[in-house]
Amino acid sequence: MRAEVAPSVSAVPYSRIRELAEIAMRMDGVLRLYFGESNQPTPAFIRDAAIAAMQSGYTFYTENAGLLSLRQEIAAHYGRMQGVELDPLREIVVTASGVQALNVSIRCALDPGDEAIVLTPAWPNGSAIVTMTCAKAVEIPHALEGGRYRIDWDAIESAVTPRTRLLIYTSPSNPLGWTATEDDQDRLLEFSRRHGIWLLADEVYDRLWYETDRLGTPVPSILRKANRDDSVMVVHSFSKSYCMTGWRLGYLIARADLAKQAGQLNEFIVSHAPSFTQKAGETALRDGEAEIAAMLQRLKENRDFCMAALAEMPRLTVPRPEGAFYLFPRVDGLKDSFDFCKRLLMETKVGLAPGVAFGARGEGSVRICYAADKAILEPAMERLGRFLKQ
Question: At the top level of CATH, which class does the domain 7-42+290-389 belong to?
Fold first, then answer.
Protein backbone atom coordinates (compact mmCIF):
# COMPACT_ATOMS: atom_id res chain seq x y z
CA MET A 1 0.00 0.00 0.00
CA ARG A 2 1.32 3.45 -0.82
CA ALA A 3 0.42 6.82 0.63
CA GLU A 4 -1.63 9.12 -1.59
CA VAL A 5 -1.53 12.85 -2.06
CA ALA A 6 -4.01 14.62 0.21
CA PRO A 7 -7.39 14.76 -1.58
CA SER A 8 -7.87 18.41 -0.58
CA VAL A 9 -4.90 19.37 -2.77
CA SER A 10 -6.66 18.16 -5.91
CA ALA A 11 -9.40 20.70 -5.26
CA VAL A 12 -6.92 23.52 -5.92
CA PRO A 13 -7.00 24.13 -9.69
CA TYR A 14 -3.87 24.59 -11.75
CA SER A 15 -3.50 28.17 -12.98
CA ARG A 16 -4.66 28.35 -16.60
CA ILE A 17 -2.33 31.35 -17.03
CA ARG A 18 0.63 29.24 -15.95
CA GLU A 19 -0.59 26.35 -18.07
CA LEU A 20 -0.42 28.51 -21.17
CA ALA A 21 2.83 30.18 -20.07
CA GLU A 22 4.54 26.80 -19.67
CA ILE A 23 3.82 26.11 -23.34
CA ALA A 24 5.06 29.56 -24.37
CA MET A 25 8.27 29.25 -22.38
CA ARG A 26 9.30 26.30 -24.54
CA MET A 27 8.95 28.41 -27.68
CA ASP A 28 11.23 31.06 -29.17
CA GLY A 29 10.16 34.54 -30.19
CA VAL A 30 6.90 34.71 -28.23
CA LEU A 31 5.40 38.16 -27.64
CA ARG A 32 4.67 37.70 -23.94
CA LEU A 33 1.54 39.52 -22.83
CA TYR A 34 0.16 36.78 -20.57
CA PHE A 35 1.94 37.66 -17.30
CA GLY A 36 1.25 40.81 -15.33
CA GLU A 37 4.65 42.40 -15.74
CA SER A 38 6.61 44.85 -17.82
CA ASN A 39 9.53 43.77 -19.96
CA GLN A 40 11.49 46.61 -18.33
CA PRO A 41 14.07 45.58 -15.70
CA THR A 42 13.94 46.83 -12.14
CA PRO A 43 15.30 50.42 -12.05
CA ALA A 44 19.04 50.58 -11.48
CA PHE A 45 18.81 52.56 -8.23
CA ILE A 46 16.77 49.75 -6.66
CA ARG A 47 19.15 47.06 -7.91
CA ASP A 48 22.09 49.09 -6.57
CA ALA A 49 20.37 49.36 -3.18
CA ALA A 50 20.10 45.56 -2.95
CA ILE A 51 23.78 45.14 -3.81
CA ALA A 52 24.76 47.76 -1.23
CA ALA A 53 22.58 46.03 1.37
CA MET A 54 24.27 42.68 0.75
CA GLN A 55 27.69 44.29 0.98
CA SER A 56 26.62 45.94 4.25
CA GLY A 57 25.73 42.58 5.77
CA TYR A 58 21.97 42.32 5.19
CA THR A 59 22.21 38.59 4.57
CA PHE A 60 20.86 37.33 7.92
CA TYR A 61 17.47 36.60 9.44
CA THR A 62 15.10 39.48 10.16
CA GLU A 63 11.98 39.70 12.29
CA ASN A 64 9.10 37.57 11.01
CA ALA A 65 7.15 40.77 10.36
CA GLY A 66 10.08 42.25 8.42
CA LEU A 67 12.71 44.87 9.14
CA LEU A 68 11.31 47.63 11.33
CA SER A 69 13.02 50.16 9.06
CA LEU A 70 10.96 48.93 6.08
CA ARG A 71 7.75 48.90 8.08
CA GLN A 72 8.48 52.48 9.13
CA GLU A 73 9.09 53.42 5.51
CA ILE A 74 5.77 51.83 4.48
CA ALA A 75 4.00 53.80 7.22
CA ALA A 76 5.66 57.03 6.07
CA HIS A 77 4.70 56.23 2.47
CA TYR A 78 1.03 55.80 3.42
CA GLY A 79 1.16 59.05 5.34
CA ARG A 80 2.46 60.91 2.27
CA MET A 81 0.32 59.20 -0.37
CA GLN A 82 -2.93 58.42 1.44
CA GLY A 83 -2.98 60.67 4.49
CA VAL A 84 -3.31 57.51 6.61
CA GLU A 85 -1.50 57.04 9.92
CA LEU A 86 -0.24 53.48 10.49
CA ASP A 87 1.56 51.85 13.41
CA PRO A 88 4.62 50.12 11.90
CA LEU A 89 5.04 47.89 14.96
CA ARG A 90 1.47 46.61 15.18
CA GLU A 91 -0.31 47.03 11.83
CA ILE A 92 2.22 46.22 9.08
CA VAL A 93 3.67 42.82 8.14
CA VAL A 94 6.28 42.48 5.37
CA THR A 95 5.82 39.38 3.22
CA ALA A 96 7.72 37.52 0.52
CA SER A 97 5.42 38.80 -2.28
CA GLY A 98 1.87 40.06 -2.56
CA VAL A 99 0.57 36.53 -3.01
CA GLN A 100 2.14 35.52 0.29
CA ALA A 101 0.41 38.50 1.90
CA LEU A 102 -2.82 37.08 0.48
CA ASN A 103 -1.90 33.68 1.84
CA VAL A 104 -1.36 34.73 5.45
CA SER A 105 -4.27 37.18 5.50
CA ILE A 106 -6.77 34.64 4.16
CA ARG A 107 -5.46 31.96 6.52
CA CYS A 108 -5.94 34.34 9.45
CA ALA A 109 -9.56 34.99 8.43
CA LEU A 110 -10.80 31.52 7.49
CA ASP A 111 -11.11 28.09 9.06
CA PRO A 112 -11.95 24.90 7.13
CA GLY A 113 -15.60 24.96 6.09
CA ASP A 114 -15.85 28.76 6.09
CA GLU A 115 -16.84 30.76 3.00
CA ALA A 116 -15.30 33.77 1.27
CA ILE A 117 -17.04 35.99 -1.26
CA VAL A 118 -14.66 36.85 -4.10
CA LEU A 119 -15.51 39.58 -6.60
CA THR A 120 -14.60 38.38 -10.08
CA PRO A 121 -13.29 38.22 -12.76
CA ALA A 122 -10.15 38.36 -10.64
CA TRP A 123 -6.60 37.08 -10.41
CA PRO A 124 -7.18 33.39 -9.59
CA ASN A 125 -4.78 33.16 -6.66
CA GLY A 126 -7.26 34.61 -4.17
CA SER A 127 -9.90 31.94 -4.79
CA ALA A 128 -7.21 29.24 -4.95
CA ILE A 129 -5.80 30.23 -1.55
CA VAL A 130 -9.32 30.13 -0.08
CA THR A 131 -9.59 26.57 -1.39
CA MET A 132 -6.15 25.73 0.06
CA THR A 133 -7.51 26.60 3.51
CA CYS A 134 -10.26 24.01 2.93
CA ALA A 135 -12.79 26.84 2.77
CA LYS A 136 -15.19 27.70 -0.08
CA ALA A 137 -14.74 30.57 -2.54
CA VAL A 138 -18.09 32.00 -3.63
CA GLU A 139 -17.42 33.99 -6.80
CA ILE A 140 -19.67 36.96 -7.53
CA PRO A 141 -19.01 38.51 -10.94
CA HIS A 142 -19.06 42.23 -11.60
CA ALA A 143 -21.89 43.42 -13.82
CA LEU A 144 -21.01 45.26 -17.05
CA GLU A 145 -23.30 48.22 -17.63
CA GLY A 146 -22.78 51.09 -20.05
CA GLY A 147 -19.19 50.12 -20.76
CA ARG A 148 -18.18 50.09 -17.08
CA TYR A 149 -18.09 47.30 -14.53
CA ARG A 150 -19.94 47.66 -11.22
CA ILE A 151 -20.40 45.61 -8.06
CA ASP A 152 -23.53 43.46 -8.07
CA TRP A 153 -24.76 44.36 -4.59
CA ASP A 154 -27.89 42.18 -4.73
CA ALA A 155 -25.79 39.12 -5.63
CA ILE A 156 -23.37 39.82 -2.77
CA GLU A 157 -26.17 40.06 -0.23
CA SER A 158 -27.70 36.86 -1.54
CA ALA A 159 -24.36 35.06 -1.21
CA VAL A 160 -24.04 35.62 2.55
CA THR A 161 -24.51 32.51 4.70
CA PRO A 162 -23.79 31.75 8.36
CA ARG A 163 -20.35 30.48 7.21
CA THR A 164 -19.34 33.68 5.38
CA ARG A 165 -16.23 35.16 7.02
CA LEU A 166 -14.52 37.21 4.29
CA LEU A 167 -15.03 39.32 1.17
CA ILE A 168 -12.12 39.83 -1.27
CA TYR A 169 -11.98 42.51 -3.94
CA THR A 170 -9.24 44.07 -6.08
CA SER A 171 -9.02 47.77 -6.91
CA PRO A 172 -7.68 48.57 -9.44
CA SER A 173 -8.77 45.24 -10.78
CA ASN A 174 -6.70 42.56 -12.39
CA PRO A 175 -7.92 41.83 -15.09
CA LEU A 176 -10.69 44.42 -15.55
CA GLY A 177 -8.96 47.71 -14.78
CA TRP A 178 -12.10 48.57 -12.76
CA THR A 179 -11.54 50.82 -9.74
CA ALA A 180 -13.78 51.05 -6.69
CA THR A 181 -15.50 54.42 -6.23
CA GLU A 182 -15.86 56.16 -2.88
CA ASP A 183 -19.47 54.99 -2.77
CA ASP A 184 -18.30 51.42 -3.44
CA GLN A 185 -15.85 51.66 -0.53
CA ASP A 186 -18.52 53.06 1.79
CA ARG A 187 -20.90 50.24 0.91
CA LEU A 188 -18.21 47.55 1.21
CA LEU A 189 -17.28 48.80 4.68
CA GLU A 190 -20.93 48.95 5.72
CA PHE A 191 -21.43 45.41 4.40
CA SER A 192 -18.41 44.16 6.38
CA ARG A 193 -19.54 45.86 9.58
CA ARG A 194 -23.18 44.73 9.26
CA HIS A 195 -22.33 41.08 8.63
CA GLY A 196 -19.31 40.94 10.95
CA ILE A 197 -16.93 39.67 8.26
CA TRP A 198 -13.41 40.55 7.14
CA LEU A 199 -12.89 42.82 4.13
CA LEU A 200 -9.72 42.15 2.15
CA ALA A 201 -8.69 44.79 -0.39
CA ASP A 202 -6.01 43.88 -2.92
CA GLU A 203 -4.54 47.32 -3.70
CA VAL A 204 -1.41 46.11 -5.50
CA TYR A 205 -2.15 48.34 -8.51
CA ASP A 206 -3.04 51.50 -6.58
CA ARG A 207 -0.32 53.63 -8.24
CA LEU A 208 -1.39 52.56 -11.74
CA TRP A 209 -4.40 54.88 -12.10
CA TYR A 210 -5.33 57.08 -15.03
CA GLU A 211 -8.48 58.85 -13.80
CA THR A 212 -6.55 61.65 -12.12
CA ASP A 213 -5.18 65.05 -13.02
CA ARG A 214 -1.65 64.00 -12.05
CA LEU A 215 -0.33 60.61 -13.08
CA GLY A 216 1.18 58.80 -10.12
CA THR A 217 -1.54 59.89 -7.70
CA PRO A 218 -2.69 56.69 -6.02
CA VAL A 219 -6.20 55.34 -6.03
CA PRO A 220 -7.68 56.29 -2.62
CA SER A 221 -7.17 53.36 -0.25
CA ILE A 222 -9.99 51.78 1.74
CA LEU A 223 -7.80 52.62 4.75
CA ARG A 224 -8.81 56.27 4.37
CA LYS A 225 -12.32 55.28 5.43
CA ALA A 226 -11.63 52.43 7.86
CA ASN A 227 -11.02 52.92 11.57
CA ARG A 228 -8.64 51.00 13.83
CA ASP A 229 -11.41 48.58 14.89
CA ASP A 230 -12.63 47.69 11.41
CA SER A 231 -12.08 44.15 10.13
CA VAL A 232 -10.10 45.40 7.14
CA MET A 233 -6.95 44.03 5.51
CA VAL A 234 -4.99 45.57 2.64
CA VAL A 235 -2.58 43.50 0.56
CA HIS A 236 0.21 45.23 -1.34
CA SER A 237 3.32 44.45 -3.37
CA PHE A 238 6.42 46.07 -4.85
CA SER A 239 6.05 44.05 -8.05
CA LYS A 240 3.92 46.30 -10.23
CA SER A 241 4.80 49.88 -9.27
CA TYR A 242 8.55 49.29 -9.17
CA CYS A 243 9.03 46.52 -11.79
CA MET A 244 10.09 44.10 -9.03
CA THR A 245 8.10 40.99 -9.96
CA GLY A 246 11.05 38.63 -9.48
CA TRP A 247 12.05 40.10 -6.12
CA ARG A 248 9.02 38.67 -4.25
CA LEU A 249 8.40 41.49 -1.80
CA GLY A 250 5.02 42.59 -0.49
CA TYR A 251 3.22 43.54 2.69
CA LEU A 252 -0.03 43.32 4.61
CA ILE A 253 -1.72 46.12 6.53
CA ALA A 254 -4.34 44.95 9.01
CA ARG A 255 -5.94 45.40 12.39
CA ALA A 256 -3.35 44.81 15.08
CA ASP A 257 -4.66 41.44 16.27
CA LEU A 258 -4.68 39.93 12.78
CA ALA A 259 -1.33 41.49 11.85
CA LYS A 260 0.24 39.89 14.93
CA GLN A 261 -1.03 36.45 13.89
CA ALA A 262 0.07 37.00 10.27
CA GLY A 263 3.59 37.81 11.40
CA GLN A 264 3.68 34.62 13.42
CA LEU A 265 2.45 32.60 10.42
CA ASN A 266 5.33 33.97 8.37
CA GLU A 267 7.67 31.87 10.51
CA PHE A 268 6.06 28.65 9.30
CA ILE A 269 5.68 29.63 5.64
CA VAL A 270 8.78 31.61 4.65
CA SER A 271 10.22 32.98 7.93
CA HIS A 272 10.53 36.44 6.36
CA ALA A 273 11.25 38.22 3.11
CA PRO A 274 14.97 38.33 2.16
CA SER A 275 16.74 40.99 4.19
CA PHE A 276 18.57 42.69 1.30
CA THR A 277 15.34 42.72 -0.74
CA GLN A 278 13.65 44.53 2.11
CA LYS A 279 16.37 47.20 2.10
CA ALA A 280 15.88 47.65 -1.64
CA GLY A 281 12.17 48.11 -0.94
CA GLU A 282 12.95 50.98 1.40
CA THR A 283 14.86 52.70 -1.38
CA ALA A 284 12.03 52.11 -3.86
CA LEU A 285 9.51 53.79 -1.55
CA ARG A 286 11.79 56.74 -0.78
CA ASP A 287 13.21 57.46 -4.23
CA GLY A 288 10.84 55.91 -6.75
CA GLU A 289 8.41 58.72 -7.56
CA ALA A 290 10.15 59.95 -10.71
CA GLU A 291 10.28 56.40 -12.09
CA ILE A 292 6.58 55.86 -11.35
CA ALA A 293 5.56 59.08 -13.11
CA ALA A 294 7.54 58.13 -16.22
CA MET A 295 6.13 54.59 -16.17
CA LEU A 296 2.55 55.85 -15.85
CA GLN A 297 2.96 58.11 -18.86
CA ARG A 298 4.24 55.18 -20.90
CA LEU A 299 1.47 52.88 -19.66
CA LYS A 300 -1.24 55.40 -20.50
CA GLU A 301 0.14 55.73 -24.04
CA ASN A 302 0.26 51.94 -24.34
CA ARG A 303 -3.32 51.62 -23.11
CA ASP A 304 -4.58 54.18 -25.61
CA PHE A 305 -2.61 52.56 -28.45
CA CYS A 306 -4.03 49.12 -27.70
CA MET A 307 -7.57 50.44 -27.26
CA ALA A 308 -7.37 52.11 -30.68
CA ALA A 309 -5.96 48.95 -32.28
CA LEU A 310 -8.61 46.71 -30.72
CA ALA A 311 -11.38 49.08 -31.84
CA GLU A 312 -10.50 48.20 -35.44
CA MET A 313 -10.78 44.45 -34.87
CA PRO A 314 -13.93 42.39 -35.42
CA ARG A 315 -15.93 40.61 -32.69
CA LEU A 316 -14.48 42.54 -29.74
CA THR A 317 -16.09 44.48 -26.89
CA VAL A 318 -13.43 46.34 -24.88
CA PRO A 319 -14.42 48.11 -21.62
CA ARG A 320 -12.12 51.07 -20.91
CA PRO A 321 -9.88 50.35 -17.90
CA GLU A 322 -9.41 52.99 -15.21
CA GLY A 323 -6.31 51.47 -13.64
CA ALA A 324 -3.78 48.60 -13.62
CA PHE A 325 -2.21 47.64 -16.98
CA TYR A 326 -4.66 45.19 -18.52
CA LEU A 327 -7.33 45.10 -21.19
CA PHE A 328 -10.02 42.43 -20.98
CA PRO A 329 -11.72 42.33 -24.39
CA ARG A 330 -14.72 40.09 -24.82
CA VAL A 331 -14.73 38.05 -28.04
CA ASP A 332 -18.21 37.61 -29.49
CA GLY A 333 -19.19 33.95 -29.66
CA LEU A 334 -16.06 32.69 -27.88
CA LYS A 335 -16.80 29.61 -25.75
CA ASP A 336 -13.27 28.34 -24.97
CA SER A 337 -10.81 31.12 -24.22
CA PHE A 338 -7.98 28.72 -23.35
CA ASP A 339 -8.22 27.02 -26.74
CA PHE A 340 -8.38 30.43 -28.41
CA CYS A 341 -5.23 31.61 -26.62
CA LYS A 342 -3.40 28.37 -27.30
CA ARG A 343 -4.19 28.54 -31.03
CA LEU A 344 -3.19 32.22 -31.09
CA LEU A 345 0.10 31.30 -29.41
CA MET A 346 0.90 28.38 -31.70
CA GLU A 347 -0.08 30.14 -34.92
CA THR A 348 1.16 33.72 -34.27
CA LYS A 349 3.46 33.51 -31.20
CA VAL A 350 1.31 36.06 -29.35
CA GLY A 351 0.80 35.03 -25.71
CA LEU A 352 -2.38 36.25 -24.00
CA ALA A 353 -4.04 35.04 -20.79
CA PRO A 354 -7.33 33.14 -21.20
CA GLY A 355 -10.33 34.75 -19.55
CA VAL A 356 -11.41 31.43 -18.06
CA ALA A 357 -8.45 31.74 -15.67
CA PHE A 358 -10.12 34.65 -13.89
CA GLY A 359 -13.19 32.92 -12.54
CA ALA A 360 -16.90 33.64 -12.93
CA ARG A 361 -17.73 35.60 -16.10
CA GLY A 362 -14.14 35.46 -17.28
CA GLU A 363 -14.83 32.90 -19.99
CA GLY A 364 -15.30 34.47 -23.40
CA SER A 365 -12.66 37.13 -22.78
CA VAL A 366 -8.87 37.33 -22.97
CA ARG A 367 -6.47 39.42 -20.88
CA ILE A 368 -3.86 41.58 -22.55
CA CYS A 369 -1.07 43.06 -20.44
CA TYR A 370 -0.05 46.34 -22.07
CA ALA A 371 2.96 46.98 -19.83
CA ALA A 372 5.35 45.81 -22.55
CA ASP A 373 7.23 48.09 -24.94
CA LYS A 374 5.62 49.30 -28.17
CA ALA A 375 8.13 47.09 -30.01
CA ILE A 376 6.19 44.14 -28.56
CA LEU A 377 2.69 45.62 -28.50
CA GLU A 378 2.64 46.78 -32.11
CA PRO A 379 3.33 43.39 -33.75
CA ALA A 380 1.15 41.66 -31.13
CA MET A 381 -1.86 43.84 -32.03
CA GLU A 382 -1.24 43.34 -35.74
CA ARG A 383 -1.06 39.54 -35.38
CA LEU A 384 -4.11 39.42 -33.11
CA GLY A 385 -6.15 41.44 -35.60
CA ARG A 386 -5.10 39.15 -38.44
CA PHE A 387 -5.96 36.06 -36.36
CA LEU A 388 -9.45 37.39 -35.56
CA LYS A 389 -10.17 38.15 -39.20
CA GLN A 390 -9.31 34.56 -40.09
Answer: alpha beta
